[in-house]
Amino acid sequence: MAETNPNVERFEQLLKSTNREGIDSLIDFIRKSDFYTAPASTRFHSCHEGGLLEHTLLVYDRLNTKFEDKLWSEKVDVKIENIIIAALLHDLCKAYYYGTELKNKKIYSDHGKKSDSNGRYDWETVPAYTVDDKIPYGHGEKSAMMVEEFIRLEPVERYAIRWHMGFTEPKENWNTLGCAIRKYPLILALHTSDLEATYLLEKEE
């Protein structure tokens, strides 16, 4: 019997708890993709097998925790299913996004020194993640598009997923982003949760 992955089980149970029409088809698509095994990035946070799923659940936990705070709970009118959908599917765009290739890497030798007395390095060939985007359609907008092939998003979810990159968006988009945040503050909550997971909870590798 195959060993179960607790992260996969938790992810799928949360999605199913929304009782959204089409959610089983969406989960089936995710299972057939590389979403559960992909990294969260090529060389920064959670750059390892399963890193994308780990990142996704951390973002959900941070977002869910925000609504224990009076500021967020009073200013952002959302249901738990909105939080689940927005957090767990914000990076669906990274399915079918990464590939691997072999790269040469400097290795430590001589008891931790990087090189010998002549400044020469030892090298080894190691596998590394690369971008191999098989569905080139942007980032947030791509996630929203992919999700809506299976389930209907509520507007607050659609906007949160589309704009979850926040002010890392090109500067030309900032006015539009600001308008979107005022309309749907869940965007800001999701974006800051994403940053907290990335920079405070995950390791750079």
Could you describe the 3D structure shown?
The protein has 205 residues and is mainly α. It folds into two domains: 6-96 and 136-201, no CATH class; 100-130, no CATH class. Helix content is 46%, strand content 10%. It has a two-stranded antiparallel sheet with strand order 1-2. Helix 3 packs antiparallel against helix 5 and helix 7 packs across helix 9. The chain is globular and about 60 Å long. The chain starts with 5 loop residues before the first helix and ends with a helix. The mean pLDDT is 89.
Topology overview:
Blueprint: H1 6-16, H2 23-32, H3 51-66, H4 70-75, H5 80-89, E1 98-107, E2 122-131, H6 140-147, H7 155-162, H8 174-183, H9 186-201
Helix pairs in contact: 3-5, 3-9, 5-7, 6-7, 7-9
Number of domains: 2
Can you give the helix content as a percent range?
A: 40-55%
Largest sheet: 2 strands, antiparallel
User: What strand line-up does the widest sheet have?
Assistant: 1-2
What's the rounded overall pLDDT mean? 89
Order of helices and strands: HHHHHEEHHHH
Secondary-structure-based class equals: mainly alpha
Total number of helical segments?
9
Contiguous uncertain segments of 5+ residues: none
Provide the β-strand percentage band. Answer: 5-15%
